[in-house]
Design goal:
The radius of gyration is 19 Å and the shape is globular. By secondary structure, it is mainly alpha-helical. The strands form two sheets. It has a two-stranded antiparallel sheet with strand order 1-4. The protein has eleven helices and four strands. 76% of the residues lie in helices and 3% in strands. The two termini are 35 Å apart. Strand 2 and strand 3 form a beta hairpin.
């Protein structure tokens, strides 16, 4: 029983880390109709900036804040100079964001070198809690779960209960009508892109101590995983991404423990199954970003 609980906690924490990356991706696609393959580059920049600031200062919260800031700055540059000129053209979006992904990855190697960087856990999140029955709960994984739940709740409230959330959803449904009412749709879309970029960078900063090492190519690796999650959950669905992230994280943890040879193929098999049974994803509907 203790093994099952430990695997469940590990899977949930991994799933919520994936959610932080996938949520930004699905927001940008669902609300802006943009295929952003540079999203993994923002993730890896957040991981490296967080690792660098933490190694230099020892302040974990400052490292996460620095990662979010660099994610927003890079997101602003990407949206203004790469994405905005190709709104509405998926083929050009695919090509130009792939190029952006390569630029972001190579610039990491220029600034920090080609070798991986080791990252330790902050002292106040080291160690574990031991419960009756031999169940061991690692502090950092519990911390990641709490952050993931808070971020999901905050996004849901933002999109469904606030005025800006109402403007975002209205802009998706009828952009021209919203513009006619005097609302700056471009500014709203830029805000959404910055929000998604910040979440990707924060996910990278939280993953760095979780994995213990960061490397430049991890952006593409996790971007592929995030796309799988977004497609399984339903492109544009925040709830779908949350559900799919948890499924992928938990199944991955159990499969890696019991049948490790199949763990790498699990995500692709799950993706194929969902597409065969429900091609729009588990909770996918056009314009259904909440």
């Amino acid at each position: 029983m203790d093994v099952i609980i430990n695997l469940l906690v590990n899977g949930i924490s991994t799933g919520l880390l994936i959610f932080l990356l996938a949520a930004g991706l699905t927001l940008i696609f669902g609300l802006m109709d943009v295929l952003n393959f540079a999203h993994g580059g923002l993730f890896v920049w957040g991981a490296f900036m967080g690792a660098w600031v933490f190694n230099e200062t020892g302040d974990f919260l400052l490292s996460v804040a620095a990662a979010i800031l660099i994610g927003m700055v890079l997101g602003l540059v990407l949206e203004r100079f790469l994405i905005r000129p190709v709104y509405g053209n998926h083929v050009r979006q695919l090509l130009i964001t792939l190029g952006g992904m390569l630029v972001l990855t190579e610039s990491i190697k220029i600034l920090w070198g080609p070798n991986p960087i080791r990252v330790n856990l902050p002292e106040w999140l080291q160690g574990s809690f031991q419960l009756d029955g031999g169940v061991i709960l690692i502090k950092y994984r519990l911390f990641v779960i709490v952050v993931g739940v808070i971020m999901y709740a905050a996004l849901w409230l933002l999109l469904s209960k606030t005025r800006i959330g109402l403007m975002i959803r209205a802009g998706v449904i009828d952009k021209e009508m919203v513009q006619a009412m005097g609302i700056n749709v471009k500014a709203i879309f830029t805000f959404v892109f910055l929000l998604g970029s910040a979440m990707a960078a924060m996910g990278g900063a939280l993953l760095a101590p979780y994995s213990g090492v960061v490397f430049a190519e991890m952006g593409m690796q996790y971007a592929v995983l995030a796309f799988i999650v977004v497609i399984i959950g339903g492109m544009g669905s925040l709830q779908g991404s949350a559900l799919a992230s948890l499924i992928v994280g938990v199944l991955g943890a159990f499969m890696a423990y019991y049948i490790p040879d199949l763990s790498l193929a699990l995500n692709m098999l799950l993706l194929a199954f969902v597409l065969l049974v429900k091609p729009t994803g588990l909770m996918g509907e056009k314009g259904g970003a909440v």
